[in-house]
Amino acid sequence: METRVLEIDPLEDCRAAYREAAALLAEGQLVAIPTETVYGLGADAFNADAVAQVFAVKERPHFDPLICHLPNAAAVHEIADVPEGLRGLVDTLAAEFWPGPMTLVLPRRACVPDIVTSGLPTVACRVTSHEAMRGVAKALGHPVAAPSANRFGHISPTSAAAVLKELGGAIPLVLDAGACSEGLESTILAPCLDDKGNPAVRVLREGPITREKLREVCRVLKPAKKGAQEDAPSAPNAPGQLKSHYAPSKPLTLCSPFGPFTPQPGVRYGLISYKGESKLAQMDCWVEKMSLSPGSGRLAEAAVRLFAVMRAMDECEDVDAIVAEELPTVGLGAAMMDRLTRAAADRNA
Ligand code: TXA
Ligand code: MG
Fold first, then answer.
1. pLDDT in tens, 228-246
2. Is the Cβ–Cβ distance between 149 and 119 less than 8 Å?
3. Residue 79 near residue 163 (C-beta atoms within 8 A)
4. How far is the CA of 123 from the CAs of 90, 152, 184, in angstroms?
5. What SS3 class is residue 4?
6. Which segments of the chain have a pLDDT < 50?
7. Which is the closest atom of ligand 1 to the Cα of 150?
8. Which end of the chain has the smaller Cβ count within 10 Å, N or C?
9. Mutate to test the pocket of ligand 1, among 184, 185, 241, 244 (most ligand atoms within 8 A of CB)
10. 182 CA: nearest ligand 1 atom
11. Which ligand places an atom closest to the C-alpha of 245?
12. What does the pLDDT look like over 116-164, one tens digit per residue?
């Protein structure tokens, strides 16, 4: 199959392109659609056969549920049944962070096919700030079920070119709106009641809406320590958050910016550095060096570039193995370290 790339400029009127994408989705086909986080591989969420194609094309296991993209916050109630005790919290989160890089896991309605939610009693709902995904969902008249548009376990695509490398030839259309403005997948939250019955959120996946930002508007449960009692045992987990994920094809190791790093003889290393000025970056063992935010170091800039830099390093012919500098785990650094740790995890573990 030939994959057509349709360039769109969201500053202009793109409705014809959104209608074209929606027409393909209505036929049961798949379309790659940009969001502000990463490109998504979209299917009509109410067409179980089309959603099955998403799993097939991505080679994604069926236990890993998909996010439903909605044209606006009001549409959440068409697919989710928000419990009375959580309505205030959900309204606050929606008002603060939608449209934007936040996904809410909520009790599902029966109209959502089992395959979308992997049979779970909940559905993941998102209203992206990218006009393209919202425009296509509006034109379709149904939610768009869309995981990141990469093969399962690979690096998420933050440009149409990256989508083509992952899925070129397997889907009929990519809407190309250029590079994604956030660069990291959405923060996934499970609104729940804590052990005292108060509304709170559990962070199922760290992302652009940081814990610090969330704490300004609601109670945020601390990550449960291994073996410890959860403070909201009924809140769901994110089944797709596997230990190894977001992985380049080359081995990736994490290292402190202060070192030490001992290169193995005969291995050609590429370094992904935060600012490019660390003790680690000054070692002379790197055949290639890329910085996420050269100079003063801004986490937001690093986040936007992280997946593109990982991909570029993976494609670099001179490099056998990748070393990535550990980042500060505050703010956006937490989400980036989550992705890097999974990228570094042993794939056979
Ligand atoms: O930014 C994003 O969220 C991007 C764009 C395309 O929207 N999407 C994305 O989708 O990252 P994906 O499929 O790569 O990751 C979604 C994750 C799943 O792996 C799963 O862990 C979690 O969302 N998820 C989906 N439905 C869930 C549910 N009902 N309960 C718990 N977790 C769920
Ligand atoms: Mg993904």
1. 666 666 666 777 677 778 8
2. no
3. no
4. 14, 20, 21
5. strand
6. none
7. 14
8. C
9. 185
10. 1
11. 2
12. 999 999 999 999 999 999 999 999 999 999 999 999 999 999 999 999 9
